Structure formats: structure tokens, C-alpha cells
From TrEMBL, chains A, B:
Gene3D superfamilies: Jelly Rolls (2.60.120.10), Winged helix-like DNA-binding domain superfamily/Winged helix DNA-binding domain (1.10.10.10). GO terms for molecular function: DNA binding; DNA-binding transcription factor activity. It comes from Sphingomonas aliaeris. Residues 265-283 have a biased composition (Polar residues). This is Crp/Fnr family transcriptional regulator. InterPro entries: cNMP-bd_dom, cNMP-bd_dom_sf, Env_Response_Regulators, HTH_CRP, RmlC-like_jellyroll, WH-like_DNA-bd_sf, WH_DNA-bd_sf. GO terms for cellular component: cytosol. Pfam families: cNMP_binding (PF00027), HTH_Crp_2 (PF13545). Keywords: DNA-binding, Transcription, Transcription regulation.
Length: 283, 283
DNA sequence: CGCCAGATTGACACGGCTCAAGCGGTGTGG
DNA sequence: CCACACCGCTTGAGCCGTGTCAATCTGGCG
């Protein structure tokens, strides 16, 4: 569709994930001390089984994890992906049984934080409670965006949007090099995250490639034209609620009174100033 | 599809929404006092505009509200519906600008809770902070289920699932009479909440009607066969995290190693013991 | 009685799914 | 070091669930 300069990425100042973004050294230490063990796990390991009882949170320190849901007809759906710094199963903070499972998509390391210790931390370190609140609400916002994708975007837009989101999230935690990053998902897993079929994801990926927008192969994604790719899917940074994004990227106000499923305008191709810093490695 | 007895509804003991479910009189009073004004609003009123700055939460006391998102192509998407007892814009607890708007679907009343007062309350009344946490995580779970619907369920299953969810949520706050309830959404709004088209929602509704599962007309939904309707869409109570549901309705463990998009079994038709109690009317 | 938003209906197009075959890389056992 | 197996990627053909477009109908309401 849109052509465009091989634009740079959105100008992010943030260098840490939501959870630790606003914590000082003391609080980060307290959080680290509260964690039980640190587990090194291999790809395919289930951190949590769907509908099984649980009483601890899993904070992903390295690698990728996915929440998954086996639907009533046996199909699988992936409602969320976790990258370093994310919490795999935040709901365990209040609920003893979750209706999704968590599995590792790559090898990695995970910190286990017992629910009771988390509550204790909240009581003594308000800043930590704050950090968890921000994380929970940001997650909420991402879920909303994913739902919107499945409900109102085409296959190629969904794929493009996911790739854009992941680039930004990975840049923030220092896991993206330039415009590319390791993407350990199979096409089938991408399909499960987007409500598509692996066959169609394959075709869509080829289509995006042929437009010189992005290449995904050998478990690595390389974005060739950020401006065009983000314009194609209407990607806007605002929903990620990164507190330290440059003003120039403040979201534009969309047309106010729109009807269901219709035309429109717009295009945004912010420029990015990559930054880095290991995730919760300090933990 | 499935025939079945005009089953009763799931056996719920809960009589209050998440927010006030575990608050004692003192805390409820504190919450009420913290709220600024109570606004009486008419249908169509916008409580919050998409991408506009905000610094207060809107607690819905009566009526229906919807979060909406205008997509880049001008189409509309509704990521959440609020019924009495729900918070329309929980994200405002931490973020000063939300990428969704909130509009009233019916006339109603809303309590406005300034963000700062909410934070103050959390510091002094741990039980209230707890209540908000539960609400946030439950909302998260509902969003996940909606995303799963859009990603992996057919049109009729989506419609059925939404109608099931709403019945349960309304029973809990005493707004459902027997197996029916007022549903102030137009078919177009239902379509926007399900990622469908109003034309297709219309056809789907007629189809469900012809199967004697449910009737939706004149802004009222009447479920004729709960057992069959919930079986059709694989509705399970667990994702709503109602703490006081009878054990007999504990979710069944789904088959463990499923592939993307395939066969399966299952059917659940719990029996419901309606209960009532006005939402946050005490506020 | 006239208007209008919302509900209906029909005809038709198309995006994405299904089914099925074939290919390629990689790990493993002989 | 080769042969096989297996998993994930590709590709083709055809189908079908939903969307699109366009009337027409209906119930409320002024």
C-alpha cells in the first residue's frame, strides 16, 4: 500500500519495562528478595497449566512465554505474549485458578513471586504496588488492542500490528537490534495469537515481504519500512502507555463520530530513538 | 444444535459486583464519601472522549455504558460493556489519557471518583485497594475471553457467549428477571462489540431464535434454553471469577494437548439460583 | 400523518479456512 | 556419515462464512 521512507522507529526514551520503570534500586532489591527461586527453563516448559490451582506469579526475566487457552472445540488461542520484564500470569495475584495456561516459547529464566509475598511487598513498598498497577493496566490496554485487532482488522493488518508492537516492546527492554529482533514463534503460534490459520499467516507474511515492509524468517523479524508498516495497520504508540515517549508522538485525535466499519484518513510514522538496558536482570 | 431442557441458570451465590463484593459497610461508606458528584446522564452522553485527558474514574451506578474505540479506518469497536457496579474507565487510575472513549448506552447514573482520592483510599483502606485489584483482574479476564471469542468463535457462538455473559453479570447485580434482561444495545452496537456486521448480527439473532435458544427484540433478551445456549458457545463461568459460585460449577479441565483449530467434546449446563441486591446503590 | 433510526432481506463478492500434497532443515539412530 | 522421521513452511484448489450494497419495512415519536 503506502510507500514511505525506510523510516526510523518511534522515539522512545523508556529503557525499562513497566514493572521496574519507576522503581529505585531499593525497591528493585526488595522485589528481588521477595522472589522465591529463579528457574531456568527450556522451550516448551509449561509454567502454569490451564485451570490448575496456582499461588505465585511468574516474572519473565529472559526468553519468551505465551498465555494460551484451549477452546471448547479444541482449538488454541494465545491472548498474550510475554517478553523479558513481563509477568506471565498477573491474575494469580488475586485468583487461585486461571483459565489460561502459560508456556515457554523459548528457553529462558523466570522468577517466581509467591502471591503472599507480593501482597506483603505492596503493603510496605507503595512504589512497588504502583508499578504492579501500571503493569496491570498496561496489560489491560494491550488486551484491548488485541481484541480490536481481531474484531476490526484484516489479516495483514493484524500481522503488521503484532510485529510493530513487538518491536516497540523489545526495543524498550533492549532486546531489539536496529529494526529487527528474534521472534521464536512458529507461524502456527502467530496464527493462534491473531485468530488466524497458520496457512493464512504464511501467505500474509509473504505478502508483507513482497511489499518490502517486513521479513520474518528463521525465527527473526526484520522491519524494512517502519513508516509504511505502521501506517498499514494504524499502529499508534499510545496504547502501550510508555510514560517517557517524546511529545511529538502524542496520539492524534481520531475523527469523532464514526459509524461501524467505514472509511478514513490518517497515517503516522514516528521516528524512533532506540535505547537499551537489560530487563530485570538486576533482580 | 443441542436440544436440552429449558435449563435454569448457573448457581450463583454472589449478590454484589466485584467492586463491593468484599467491602464492609465502613469501607463502602468511605468509597461513597470519596466520590465527587453523582451524575444523572442520558443515553448517548459521552463520559469520556477517546484520547482526551482524564483524571477521574466513572463508577456506573445504574444503566449501561460502553467503551468504544474508533479505529484508523473509521470503523468502531466496543471492547467492553459496563453494567451497574462496573467502572467504566479503570485505566484512568494510572493513565491520564485513554485510547478509548466511554458512552452511555442508556440513561443512568454515574459516580465520579477522582484518581487522587482513589489513591488516597487505597492507602488508608486496604480492603478497597483489594476490591479494585479484583475488579481490574476480573476485567482483564473478561477482555481475554472477548479476544478469544473474536479469534476463535463463529458469529453465532460469539453472540451466544455475549448473551450468556451478560445474563450472569446482570443476575449478580440483581438486574435480570428470571432468564431475561433489558439489553439497550442496537444490533449495530452488538456487532461492534463482537467484531461483526449489524447485518450479520441480525441474521445470527434470527438463527438463534429459530433454534429456540434465545430471543432478542425490543431491547430485551430472553434466554429460552440456557443449557443449549451455553453449550453452543462453550460458556463457562470460571473466567468471571465469581468467588461465591457453587463448587458444582467448577470449570472442567479441557483436553490438554490440542492443536490449532480442531475437534472436541464437552457441554456444561449449570443450574442457576438467581439472587439480587442493588449494585452500589448504597454509594 | 410524516420522519427517522433501526431492523430486515436479498443478491453477490471475497477474505480467510479447509484439505491435501510436497518441500526443507535438523536431530537421531544405525 | 547416511537414511529416516518429524516438524514447520509452502503452495494449490475449492468452499463457505461474513461482509457489502441496496432496498424495503417497522415502530416510536413529534
Amino acid at each position: 500500500m503506502t510507500t514511505a521512507s525506510a523510516g526510523n522507529l518511534p522515539g522512545l526514551k523508556a529503557t525499562r519495562p513497566w514493572l521496574s520503570a519507576n522503581l529505585d534500586a531499593a525497591d528493585r532489591n526488595a522485589l528481588a528478595r521477595a522472589c522465591g527461586d529463579i528457574r531456568t527453563v527450556s522451550a516448551g516448559t509449561d509454567l502454569l497449566r490451564q485451570d490448575a490451582p496456582t499461588n505465585a506469579l511468574h516474572i519473565l526475566l529472559d526468553g519468551w512465554a505465551a498465555r494460551y487457552k484451549i477452546m471448547e472445540d479444541g482449538s488454541r488461542f494465545i491472548p498474550a505474549l510475554a517478553v523479558p520484564g513481563d509477568i506471565c500470569d498477573l491474575d494469580a495475584l488475586r485468583f487461585g485458578q486461571l483459565d489460561y495456561g502459560v508456556t515457554m516459547l523459548s528457553a529462558g529464566t523466570v522468577a517466581v513471586l509467591p502471591r503472599q509475598r507480593a501482597d506483603a511487598l505492596f503493603a510496605t513498598n507503595p512504589a512497588i504496588a504502583d508499578a504492579f498497577w501500571s503493569l496491570a493496566l498496561a496489560e489491560n490496554s494491550i488486551l484491548t488492542e488485541w481484541a480490536a485487532s481481531m474484531g476490526r482488522r484484516s489479516a495483514s493488518q493484524r500481522v503488521a500490528h503484532l510485529l510493530c508492537e513487538l518491536l516497540v516492546r523489545l526495543v524498550i527492554v533492549g532486546k531489539a537490534g536496529g529494526h529487527s529482533y528474534d521472534l521464536p514463534l512458529t507461524q502456527e503460534q502467530i496464527a493462534d495469537a491473531l485468530g488466524l490459520t497458520s496457512v493464512h499467516v504464511n501467505r500474509t507474511l509473504h505478502s508483507l515481504r513482497s511489499m518490502n515492509l517486513v521479513t520474518v524468517q528463521h525465527r527473526r523479524a526484520t522491519i524494512h519500512d517502519w513508516a509504511a508498516l505502521s501506517a498499514l495497520c494504524g499502529f499508534r504508540l499510545s496504547y502501550l502507555h510508555l510514560e517517557t515517549v517524546d511529545d511529538e508522538f502524542a496520539p492524534e485525535l481520531p475523527p469523532s463520530g464514526a459509524r461501524s466499519r467505514h472509511r478514513v484518513t490518517q497515517a503516522s510514522g514516528p521516528t524512533l530513538r532506540p535505547s537499551s538496558t537489560s530487563a530485570l536482570s538486576a533482580l
